């Protein structure tokens, strides 16, 4: 069968997903003959991806809101429990053998899914830029310590190194990403434990925060924890379970993903909270250098290795998924080439973030926009998955002209209505650096996260009892090419 997207039809067998070979599959459904592995493999994928310094920054941001040490720890730990929702959403990948944004067509319709796919692609590029910039800052500190000087030339060199490390793995694809995450995680966890041993004893547990509205600080702190971690993965999670056998246990997928992501995110967040009680990390234009001031000289290089390695593992994962996202949007290139498109955009965006804008302000603005958009999207997607018990008519997901999920000319009115209602509530209840909604102003808190439950409730009320939500039978895969 020819492939109108220019993607080489893969052969059957696990050879289509070999380590250090370019992955043959793109956004097409993974045939049963190419499925392999088990839920426990997901633990290391998510563990490695979340050993990233951005969680240290997020923890410091929570302290910067004026909260005390124990308040910040509690809020960050509670927020990271949302990673188990990411795990629940990941089950769809194993059942359908398709990326998240293909499965989401069941929730929003083929064409109704496009706006969210565009926004998810933009958010993914934003996160890649964020982690790339943090890695470059770490490399710049390392360069200065090695006597290479400071300034633009060192930053540019660091940017080249970061792009080369991440793009080379993401281009190769799923199997290489999975193996590299495991290898990098083993080395990073040792240095991360040492980082905790050195920083946590310097924390001031008696730090009570600053005077200010506590309800506002708690609500924004929870937003930072959720948006800076679990929410950022919700639209890509199935991309890493679509190779699992169809019969993989939902509980195993949920727990392996949840614990694999939550443990490193929470530990690094607490390290950031501890550091912020001693040094103004949140006010620093270079948060890497700010944390480095708390460390002995002999640990500078291992610390910077943790920062760079963590940024690489996270960026590899996001870069891989954003390439699939472009295919979902109809870009007529194979997956490896779509990754290269991201590389060009990320390089340009990272240069702007390094030389033009303020890092902390840019991060807070980015998180505030993401919450308003993806909290309601996640609410609809999770509710739809629950109603269907993660069982889909896969042929319908890929059908361009009609099929089960065509709905009204490709738009699922119930899903889009719920999304609009949830987004409106999130926007009205948001208290961000970009705007303050009237509900947030009246209540003195940022309640934009409520857009998710609200969207889920509206969706449930609109679709409950419909025959279309009867469980679709498990369907064997009959094609190895994209059906578009």
TrEMBL record:
Alphabetized GO MF terms: transmembrane transporter activity
Keywords noted in UniProt: Membrane, Transmembrane, Transmembrane helix, Transport
Chief location category: membrane
Residues annotated as transmembrane: 43-67, 73-97, 118-146, 152-172, 184-203, 215-241, 253-277, 297-319, 339-357, 363-383, 416-436, 442-462
Keyword Flavoprotein recorded: no
Annotated Pfam families: Transp_cyt_pur (PF02133)
InterPro entries noted in UniProt: Pur-cyt_permease, Pur-cyt_permease_Fcy2/21/22
The keyword Transport belongs to this UniProt entry's keyword annotation: yes
A GO cellular component annotation in the UniProt record: plasma membrane
Subcellular location: Membrane
Bilayer topology term: Multi-pass membrane protein
PANTHER family attached to this UniProt entry: PURINE-CYTOSINE PERMEASE FCY2-RELATED
Family: Belongs to the purine-cytosine permease (2.A.39) family.
Identification of the protein by name: Purine-cytosine permease-like protein
Native organism: Nocardiopsis metallicus
